[in-house]
Amino acid sequence: MNKTTLLLTLTLSLSAGLAFRAVAEGDKKEESLIGQVMKDHFKGDTSDIKKATKGELSKDEATKLLAALKSLSPAKPSKGDEASWKEKTAALVLAGEKLEKGDADAGAAVKAAANCKACHDVHREKK
Fold first, then answer.
1. Most buried among 8, 41, 54, 116, using CB within 10 Å?
2. Across all residues in the chain, what is the average pLDDT?
3. Which residue, 62, 57, 65, 58, is CA-closest to 38?
4. pLDDT in the model for residue 28
């Protein structure tokens, strides 16, 4: 093998490795975003989601929650198909919009859309 072919092969291998790493890091960032939204807004008895279902979320908290919910849709979960993810996150955003507007049925909409088990069963890797 001549030096030019060897150099070209090494360059292509390095480029492919860097591209794979960038994609993997992008996936980790998306999973990290999803995890952070879950931790910040869904987890615990005093979470924004729990407060929303009880009608105890302030207007400012509802606005912040809606922004967090909107950030989920473009992210890619660790498993499951895109159509299911889009459907579930769209339901969350719709419920968040009702919440921010102060709709009377917002709490019920949030409770229905924020079904952790239904989402985790299809979109979360087992630990």
1. 41
2. 84
3. 65
4. 52
The per-residue pLDDT for range 57-109, each reduced to its tens digit, is 999 999 999 999 999 999 999 899 999 999 999 999 999 999 999 999 999 99
Do 49 and 94 form a contact (C-beta atoms < 8 A)? Answer: no
Please enumerate in sequence order all residues whose Cβ is within 8 A of that of 30, keeping only pairs 6 or more positions apart, or say none.
75, 76, 77
Q: How far is CA 91 from CA 44, 57, 109, 112, 124, in A?
A: 21, 19, 8, 9, 18
Q: How many CA atoms lie within 13 A of 111 on its CB side?
A: 9
- Which residues have C-beta within 8 Å of that of residue 62, sequence separation ≥ 6? 52, 96, 99, 100
Contacts of 84 (CB under 8 A, 6+ apart): 122, 123
The model's pTM is 0.74
Closest C-alpha to 99, from 112, 108, 90: 108
Boundaries of domain holding 78: 3-123
- The residue type of 38 is M
For 12-67, the pLDDT digits (tens) are 555 555 454 544 444 555 668 999 999 999 999 999 999 999 999 999 999 999 99
